[in-house]
Structures are given as C-alpha cells and as structure tokens.
Amino acid sequence: MTLADPADRALLAALQDGLGPDARPYAALAARCGLNEDEVLQRLQRWRGCGLIRRFGLVVHHRALGYTANAMVVWDVPDERVDEVGRRLAAEPAVHLCYRRRRALPRWPFNLYCMVHGRDRATVRATVADIAARLGLEDVPHRLLFSLRRFKQTGARFIHDTP
Amino acid sequence: MNTLDAVDRALINTLQDGLPIEARPFAALAAELGLDEETLVERLQALAARGLVFRIGPLYNAERFGGALTLAALHAPEATYEAIAERVNRHPEVAHNYRREHHLNMWFVVAAETPHRLAEVLAEIETETGCRVFDFSREAEFHVDLRFPV
C-alpha cells in the first residue's frame, strides 16, 4: 500500500472516520471513497495481511465504560535491561501498551512507558506495585502519571487534505 | 455503565477483538447472539449514542505506509493551561491530549502523513505556545492491546 496510489489514499482518508454502524459497513465506506465494496474488502484484507492494519475492530471510550483511572507508568531502566523489562511488562495482563522511548535528560530520565487502566487509582497503584514486586523492579525508579483530564480524543488521522 | 446488558457486553467484548473484513461482518456474531443483523446494528448505534463506543476502525502500523505518529509532552503554566491546550488541539494532527500529574503536564499524540510533516507540527506548536515540546517518539514496541473487557 502506498499513499501515492490515489485509491489507497482515498480509502485511508475515508476510513479515518471509522465504519458506520451499518449491516454492510464496507459498502458504505466504499461509497465514501469512490470504490466498490469488493475493492474495499480486498484492499483492507491485504492491508491486514501485511501488518499495515494491526487490529480492525471496536474502539471504546474506556472512561465511559468505567475505566476512569488511567496511569502512564514511566520507568528509568538501565539501557542493558530495558528490552528484557519491556517484554516482561508487556506480558502482564494489566498492561495495555508498552513502549521504549527516548529519554530527555536531565529532567526526564524515563525510557520505558506502559499504560495501566483501572476503575480507581488505588487499584491501579496496587496493580503497579504488585507488578514491580513480582518482576523485581522495586529499585527501578518509576512514576505513575495519572490523567487528570482528557482534552481531546479523536482517532489518529494521518491525512489532512482540505476538501 | 451499569445498564449494559449481557448482549451489550458481548458486543463490546467481541468486537474489540476484531471485526471480520467481509461484506456482512456482523452476521456471524448476530447469529451467535440470537439477534438479527439489524438489531445488532441498532444496539451498536445505541452504544455510540451513549458515548460508550468511539468508533469501529483500524489501528495502523503507520510507518508501513510512510505515516508518522508520536507522543509529545510540554509543560504549560497553570495560568495559561487552557489557552495552550486549545492551541495544541486546534491542530488536526493532534489525536488526543491528556492532562497528567507531572511538571510535564500536557501529553498529546500527533499523527501525520509523513515524518517531515510531523516535525513541522511539533515546531508549529512550540512557536505558537512558547513551550518547549518534547518528542518522545518510540524506539521499540513491546505490546499494543487496547481492549477493555466489560
């Protein structure tokens, strides 16, 4: 897939708004981008097959569903251990996302990030403490950055053409 | 939240695992739940109207089509926090923006068609807000699973 292909580009742009709740949602999507339903299905299957689409499904408003405590847990892991620790954190059911990111020294020493969601802060704190204890990470400096307010939530939109 | 019945829960849980890419993607699930497709679609519409469901769509590996995505942060002074959030969010490339408890108190995800455009957006935000923008682009990914069982 390449954005140089007008059909791929049109499909990607149309899909930024997601599928409508419709018994034949791909036909409706096709109509929005000037393709037919079969072409859309074939392209999307190809995109998923090659890993361009990692998941195609329902995205929920987790706060509205009761997951109101949301902590970004950041860790300052020695470089030689960070990938191993990342893999072990990723295997924890409570961990939703886990990435290694660049430090911004001197103020921001953290290089491993994971998201832990829960119904209240005490539960999230206990979950993180339990993970740290079981994985032997008590001595690894880490912080829980709870979210206080969500200012914006849209899906990631990559194409911003003015119509 | 408390008013989700068993069918709503099954819909939310199953469809978070993924939607088939086929002409009638809800048919099999509807049959499994003993519903017709139309009823299932109405259920989804109702969940969306209640603000529980955000959208049905893909999660991309954006790099594979040349796109770019990053997590950025800045420190906004208390007195101007709201105005800075408004400036940041005005960019269509900003996908979401959370206030978090730290000196770096504004965390937002930026998506763009190319890495070049992404860098431009971060620079624009820096100029507009007068705040230094930290680009915490990811260096490795260990896990992505954004499913929330109900």
Describe the structure in brief.
The complex is a heterodimer of chains A (163) and B (150). Chain A has helices at 6-15, 25-33, 37-49, 82-90, 121-134, and strands at 53-60, 69-75, 95-101, 112-118, 142-153.
Structural overview:
The complex is a heterodimer of chains A (163) and B (150). By secondary structure, chain A is α+β, with helices and mostly antiparallel strands. Chain A is built from five helices and five strands; from the N terminus they run αααββαββαβ. Chain A has two domains: 6-49, Arc Repressor Mutant, subunit A, CATH 1.10.10; 69-146, Alpha-Beta Plaits. Chain A has helices at residues 6-15, 25-33, 37-49, 82-90, 121-134, and strands at residues 53-60, 69-75, 95-101, 112-118, 142-153. Chain A has a four-stranded antiparallel beta sheet with strand order 3-4-2-5. In chain A, 33% of the residues are buried. Chain B has five helices and six strands; from the N terminus they run αααββαββαββ. Chain B has helices at residues 6-17, 27-33, 37-49, 81-89, 115-129; strands spanning 53-60, 68-74, 94-100, 106-112, 134-135, 138-144. The longest helix of chain B has 15 residues, at 115-129. Chain B is elongated. The chains are: A alpha+beta (163), B alpha+beta (150). At the A-B interface, helix 1, helix 2, helix 3, strand 1 and helix 4 of A face helix 1, helix 3, strand 1, helix 4 and strand 3 of B.
List keywords for this structure.
heterodimer, A: 163 residues, alpha+beta, Arc Repressor Mutant, subunit A, Alpha-Beta Plaits, 2 domains, 4-stranded antiparallel sheet, 5 helices, B: 150 residues, elongated
Topology:
The complex is a heterodimer of chains A (163) and B (150).
Chain A: H1 6-15, H2 25-33, H3 37-49, E1 53-60, E2 69-75, H4 82-90, E3 95-101, E4 112-118, H5 121-134, E5 142-153
Helix pairs in contact in A: 1-2, 2-3
Chain B: H1 6-17, H2 27-33, H3 37-49, E1 53-60, E2 68-74, H4 81-89, E3 94-100, E4 106-112, H5 115-129, E5 134-135, E6 138-144
Antiparallel strand pairs in B: 2-4, 2-5, 3-4
